[in-house]
Each structure stands twice: as C-alpha cells, then as structure tokens.
Amino acid sequence: MIVIDEIKKLIEKVPVEYGDVRVEKTTSNGISYRRNTLENLSYTTNFGGCIRLYDGGNWVNGNFSGLNNFKKVLQWLTVNLRYMKNKDYELENFQKNYYTEEVTPKQRDLLKIRTIMHNETEKMKLKDYIKSFDFVFSDQNIEKYFISNNGSYIKQQFNSLGMSIKITGISNTSYVKTIRGVDEDKVIKDITQEITKGMQNITKKKLKLIEPRKNITVLLDPKIAGVLMHETIGHTLEADSLLMNKKLYNSILANPICYTANYSTPKKSNYFSLISI
Q1: Partners of residue 166 on adjacent β-strands
Q2: Helix 105-117 crosses helix 91-98 at what angle (to 10 degrees)?
Q3: For the chain, domain boundaries
C-alpha cells in the first residue's frame, strides 16, 4: 500500500495544464488510479516499475529497476508530460518551475537536444533528410512512432549485434539490413546508405546517396532523455550485460546520444527509436 499511496501522490502533483493523467493496472502487482482520461499513464511494480504516457497518438514507456526514489520518478513524469504537451518550452523556465533538484550539466545537454528536436526548422531538416517517398520505417516488435509531417516512421532496433533497420513500403515489401559497430560516424554513414538502398528497393527510384554530415545528430527516441532517466532512477545499461556492452554504453554517453529502452522480462531485450537531423 505504501507504493500505491506514493504513486498516487506523484500523479496528483503533475501540473493539470499538461492534460489528464491515468494510472492503470497492468499486472497483478500493478496499481489502478485515475485522475482524468486524456493522458494515460500506467505504473507496474512487477520486475521494477513501468510508467506509460499517452498523448493521443503515441505511447512513451519509462522502465525502472527500483521503486525507492519517487522524487526522481516524478521528475521523469513531469519532464515527459510537459515535453509531450509543449514542444517549444524554455529549458531554464522548465528547470525553475518543474525540477525539484538541480539538473546536472549532462542532463541539461540532453534536455537541450530534446528541445531542439521539435523546433520547426529542425523538423524541416529531418523531412528533407528522409525525403518525401511513400515508405515507413518499422519494426514489428515496437509500436510505430510518428516523426515527420509526411507520415514517415523510422524505427530502430538496437542490440548487442548492432542495429537492424527494416524499411517497409506501402505495398508491404520490405528491406532489412543489420549494421554492426559502435563508431558514430560510421553508423551514421551506414544508416544513410542503407536508407537510400532501402528506398531504392521499395520505390524503384534511383536516389542520390544521402551524404552523411558531421552535424547530423543521432537521437534515440527524443521523447525521453534516456541517459537522464537511467541516471536518476538508478538503472544503468552498464550494470546489465544482457542489455549493452560497456563499449557501446560509453560511446552513447560520450557522443552524447539521447535514448530510451523498452525492456521485456524475464528475457531482457531493448529497443530504440532512431531519428537523424
């Protein structure tokens, strides 16, 4: 009951201006609590914790290995509710009004990256980057995530072997390619090459190779600052050998790359959404 009571307190503290919130029961060990109905949030205590947000079109999952730091969970929840409702917020105002603890420089950088990602100018760069072909990037293991005005989806599966890109056309034809390695520049180059090949394969159009640029930023699910989530909740990729190897983990922290993971139990696997600008 202590866990349930604490989670209820957290939900009550979520700013009303960011929509309705619901905590719904998802497992036998979960909790059920409803404040309103527009935003949907679920918190399950089985194998740790899971917070799920819904903005009317997209689900965002936050998974935690511990249940003892509720202030940090509230930070995570508030970050994402605000981010989903107001893509152009000022970081300083956000920190002043909604953070209960000082934001570290690394967290600040990640939040800045997330803010930039939904700037209209950056959206146009992204749209230009993926062009205007009728195709979607998808992965059957993950929900599709809308990332551009022309209806294109980019889904990225990230595992110990590297990255697997699946491009699915409107006629259900698909092109799958696995990219191995952790070097950022090489990965970006490989991704752009494979995207181009995939579009050629599906659309039957001859496309000029999209040249990788130094200022392309690879973000793994911009809705959640994954490094922030893992640092504040205490679940680190480094501690889980099934999740990622240490070299890749350090590479992600050094770049930096914004990421989030969707875990399954008991056999753990992790999936990441990828977009480039």
Answers
A1: 176
A2: 120
A3: 1-102, 104-277
Both structure tokens of 19:
């929509």
Closest CA to 123 of 112, 115, 133: 115
Q: Which of 14-18, 36-40, 68-72, 110-114 has the lowest mean pLDDT?
A: 36-40
- Calculate the CA 222 to chain-centre distance: 5
List the beta strands (DSSP E) in 83-173.
135-137, 157-159, 162-169
DSSP state of 59: E
pTM here? 0.18
CB contact set of 71 (below 8 Å; sequence gap of 6+): 100, 101
At 189 the pLDDT is 54
3-state secondary structure of 3: helix
Could you tell me if 232 and 103 are in contact, meaning their C-beta atoms sit under 8 angstroms apart? no
CA distance 69 to 233: 7
Tokens of 50: 């899971």
Would you state the pLDDT for residue 209?
Answer: 30
Cα-trace Rg, the chain: 19
End-to-end CA, the chain: 45
Q: Dihedral sign, CA of 104, 74, 147, 188? A: positive
The length of the chain, given as a count of residues:
277
